[in-house]
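User: Predict the full complex structure for these chains.
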Amino acid sequence: MRFLPLILRNLGRNKLRTGLTGAAIGLAVLLVCFFLTMPAGIDVFLSQIASNVRVSVHHKGGLVYQMPFAYVNKIRSVPGVVGADGVTWFGGAFEEAGHVTFPSFAVEPEHVGAVWPDYHIDPAALDRFRRFRDGAIVGRQTMEKYGWKIGQEISLRSTIWPVTLTFRIVGEIPNARSPLFWFQREYLAQAMQARNWTLDIVGIVWVRIADPALVDGVMAKLDAMFRNSPAETAAETEKSFFASFFGSLQGFVTIILLVTGLVALCVLFIAANTASMAVRERAREIAVLRAIGFGRRLIFGTLVAESTLLATVAGGSGALLTYAFTAGVKAAAGGWSTQLGPLAGFLVSPAIVGEGMALAVVVGLIAGIAPAYGAAQKPVATILREVF
Amino acid sequence: MRGLPLSYPVRNVRARLRRTALTIGVIALAVIATSVFLALITSLKHTLVASGSPDNLIVLRKGSDNDGSSMLSLEAFQAVRFLDGIARLPDGTPLVSAEKVMQPFARTRAGGRENVLVRGVDPVALAVHDEVRIAEGRMFRPSSSEIVVGRGIAGRYANADLGAEMFIGKRNWRVVGILESGGSSFESEIWGDLRDVARDANTFPYSGVRMKLAPGTDRQALIDRIDRDPRYALQATPEVEYYAEQAKSAATLYGLLVILAIPVGVAAGFGAANTMFAAVQSRTVEIGTLRALGFSRATILRSFVLESVVISLVGFVVGAIGTLCVAFVLRLALGGIGFGAQTYTINVVTLRVRPTDLAVALVFATAIGLIGGLLPAWRAAHLRPVEALRKA
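Assistant: Here is the predicted structure of the two-chain assembly.
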């Protein structure tokens, strides 16, 4: 610590260079952190939102094939099933946006509480959802995106069904990352009935199972129940459902990580160069310090500390700036997106900021070691002679 | 005094082999980072924008925003099929392609599961979609469970190989051909017989209709006529506009990448320029010596900048080769980069490094060489030779 003033003085010698190097390291760490939020979004989603006792039952051949609605009651009768809710994709487009900007589903309101207790929807809201035919429960992300309030009326034009329906928001899913829009299946059924079409199909049945130990058995039983029927099913846990949903983003994630790695390497070179320039410029001075008796370890230590300090401070600020940067990007582009899924969540976690800081410290250390070692090890006489 | 001989920078490179190799390496890294990113952006854009023919219309159910979610009845198809203004084959068949679009599951080569876009068509489709051609194999035969797969599909999904049986949705289909469309989104589709696909889907017979207009047709009049038919709620859109609209949904992704390309370029460029800067700055004494010997500033600057730019160009060449290798490995390992399309299927982007991407990287590398070489050499050359000599 006694040498901190010396280190600071040395950093202040060439303020322009220190500033530029710091800015470059900060920018690069910021970028690395930002890129890391994208794949991390998937992990967070899978670990926090997706449950392993909730199971999706859908047609084996694809989500596009519908199942008979009667399946839902059959599923409810299976032992171990706590609740089941048949949901149907509505593909509602909010007129202001013009296209589908959040996922909307027709659900069975009386079973929402049993299947999604972990969503912590206000019981009073669930009660209203059951009572009002045109009621809708909306995820907080979508509520905030459009500034909707509970009690407000919203019209959605379906891109699948030939109807435009007007809903009244009766409650919200209190999770800032939930884009969902749920409304009563009966409302859609009646609207279709008016067009002489009976709504007797369902897209996905979400099933909650009593105990994690029962999950595999119940899934096998469900699939066995519908084997050799016109609509064979495939049951899978919510985690696996979303994991395969997001699996297709793997290529994108790989490229993002590759670019991240290259950017990180570039930072390393920036820091290493600055460190070696500093050492070269001060070669004579270091030799003099050595000649008057300062130890090798001390020289080595102060030089490494200098580069580490610069990288840590600059990188740390970059990592912290990630919060502001992602907030900006989110405001410009964020929310639910068909293309990016949870990649567009841009959720900066303390772990990511930690990784960014760690990167900065490591970069500073590695960058400082080689030139500092050289300066500390070379015989004094050689250095002094090199310097004319 | 004469200029510095060309052998001077050449010898210098030989004398400082390690330092030069380091500089080349860093520039190559910067080139790879920026051009892989650029290639991703341009490949993405190309896939989205290049689809559709200017003289085609797409007819969907009113309210649908893509043919994956649209449903049309037999009557609706018959109502538009024989309208005036539609091009016809010599035998009188109108160039109208009724299509059924499905999004069943298919297995990826990596073992995952994705929705793929299956388009059921009649043979006339190839005449309507004139950018689509069968590149390998042949067109499918009707009602025989044969399919042709897009180039992007062929690389990405299990058994999507010529002659193989590919499991899609509920059953196996035989792959008999590979279709290409110059990189547009049709290459992320599977085409099969209209009736085969419709039977498999078990819903409305058609999703949408594509039609080619006869030359000289009043496009807007035809669109109005289709839109205003009170019997069927239809909407007609020029195909190019339709795909531009589809592309809009990826605008977020695209815009994001473009915004990020700037800081990536700055960070990488700064790293590389910094290395170059250091390499030249470490030769301040040498520049002082040259000045003391009587070489003019201009001569010295010219020689040093030339050397830096040449080193940058070598770095660019190494980086360009690296980029092509990276793109090749990624193509092989990932089978294309998938991202969700508005039809909830996967658009397969084949990462192609285009000459324009490399041209941008070339400018970038040259700029690094110029700035990284000129600044420190300028500074050293403008010191009094005595001072420069004292600097170490």
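Residues 52 and 237 of chain A are 6 Å apart (CA to CA).
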